[in-house]
């Protein structure tokens, strides 16, 4: 029966309190059973008031165990146990000679039991109450104001029976708890052994993941070299314009943003694009976009930005087999073509900013993306905007990565308004100085936040 109850206790309580639950069970079980035996013994020797007190102790030890089994708090159990034992053994002491009682040693069960159950400062409170009770017994010895029984019971070996009972009670608790500890320590060792093997397996898996991750990172780093080589193939913006810069920062090593600076006939063609996604998928699409744009410009000799966009959308639509694959991949892109007299601008869901007469103007273009749309959009034309070159102080082309970056004191997006104001405050400076301003502003704004998207900001003075 005891083993069955212990198993039920350990099933009902968590691993952290299993041993505590077993200890409380032994204390309460032994208190109840020993009290029942003492009740019978003292009834047999004629101490019926003492026998009734032990019946009281036996009954309430069982009640406390039942309440504890039903998940009553350990601290409450300890307080109930302290109250029952202190009142019960105080009653016994009162009727067996007060301070001279041979059974007075039973009073020690209160602080011992509470200490074993609660294992905290609660035991000091009950020890204090026991000392107070001892003081009352001493006071009664000298004043007799409480009229305790002063007659010692005439029973042989009464004191030694008390000692033997206490000794067996405490040794049984220690012995039972040691058995339980050994049993469940074995279970803990088994679990630890199992956890050790699991940790070894996890460590091996982590090592494999590290190897695979290093291979992937190495591949992506190599892909970055290829993308950088394609990006910087041909003309540099610094060679094409006297005052220019490019702020280019991929989010994940390789980027879905790309730029091109092409020369054909007497025209300089500047392209800034933001492909669907970022990382490897965006980088693949960027390489496709760059190749198609260069083919349209240099092989088909299409030099008007609106027509370049038109042919690019048609070429990408067929290249990605979007009439059958239902692919929605594409890019937002802006193109500026600069010749001796004019700057021509066309864009697909991308904004170009120009500075004219100390004012920043937004050229939003058409809300028709390149790729990712149905066949009905393939034949739609893009609008062309032509501005006299001499009227423009500076041109900015960008993706939405900078203005969408989270940061600042309130962890918000940088926003278009702040981006426009930033451009307006720095356009009079040299290109390399503007680049430094952008880098520092971005760093300060981002702070400890993760970079949200790929970033591309391209600026140049057309004159």
UniProtKB/TrEMBL annotation:
Keyword set includes Transmembrane helix: yes
User: One MF term in GO for this entry?
Assistant: phosphatase activity
Question: Transmembrane as a keyword?
Answer: yes
All copies of the PPM-type phosphatase domain together span 269-458
Q: Which residues cross the membrane?
A: 21-44, 50-69, 81-104, 124-143, 155-177
A Pfam family the protein falls into: SpoIIE
Keywords, sorted A to Z? Hydrolase, Membrane, Transmembrane, Transmembrane helix
**PANTHER family hit by this protein:** HAMP DOMAIN-CONTAINING PROTEIN, STAGE II SPORULATION PROTEIN E-RELATED
Record-given protein name:
Serine phosphatase RsbU (Regulator of sigma subunit)
